[in-house]
Automatic annotation (TrEMBL):
One of its GO terms (molecular function) is signaling receptor binding. It is found in: Secreted. It comes from the Eukaryota. This is Retinoic acid receptor responder protein 2.
Length: 198
């Protein structure tokens, strides 16, 4: 058992070493976003980055990734503790995200979109489709002149049943969509489903 754990840790370390600085930053932004939600009470660990692409454009670098998260025994306030063990049978979440980083200043994010929910959620494929559509707009960020105004917002609404929540998603507006546009529609999670109940 210990040998298997060492092997898994070694593979994770190898994966970390193969990531570019922007890919690593994108992953950290996703984790920060996920744990910033009030509904998330436990620490979740990155189980795997199942997809990642990085594309350079004249005005910025586009990074898209999908991350599998798994619940640990630690509370959210203990995040960063090295000994947070994965909770057997704990909740799992998949985060879909994309970012456009400014070429001249990588700390400046031109546009972004992030969504997290369970793959078992019946609307997961619809969410993925919406995410891919929005990421196409994120990819084009900075391609046209902008007045520099962006709006960053989140959709998080409780349903009638306590503990059951609607899909959580955030986005910045793309300049091409106009001030106040989001390029996305809130998606409702059926009441028998659950998102971010950790």
């Amino acid at each position: 058992m210990k040998g298997l754990l060492v092997l898994c840790l070694g593979l994770l370390a190898l994966a970390d070493a193969n990531r570019s600085p922007l890919q690593q930053r994108a992953l950290e932004l996703v984790l920060d976003f996920f744990h910033s939600r009030d509904l998330v009470q436990a620490t979740f660990k990155e189980q795997a980055v199942t997809h990642v692409t990085e594309t350079e454009f004249p005005r910025g670098t586009y990074v898209q990734l999908e991350v599998d998260l798994v619940q640990t025994f630690c509370r959210k306030q203990q995040r960063g503790t090295q000994n947070c063990r994965i909770k057997p049978g704990g909740r799992k979440q998949k985060c879909l995200a994309c970012f456009k980083f400014n070429s001249s200043d990588p700390q400046n994010i031109l546009d972004e979109s992030k969504r997290c929910l369970s793959e078992q959620n019946p609307i997961f494929q619809e969410v993925r489709r919406k995410q891919n559509q929005e990421c196409e707009a994120v990819k084009e960020a900075g391609a046209q002149k902008s007045d520099g105004i962006h709006i960053y917002w989140a959709v998080l609404q409780p349903s009638r049943k306590q503990g059951t929540l609607f899909l959580l998603e955030t986005s910045r507006t793309s300049p091409s969509l106009g001030l106040g546009a989001t390029g996305m529609e809130p998606l409702l999670v059926p009441e028998e489903s659950s998102v971010f109940q950790a």
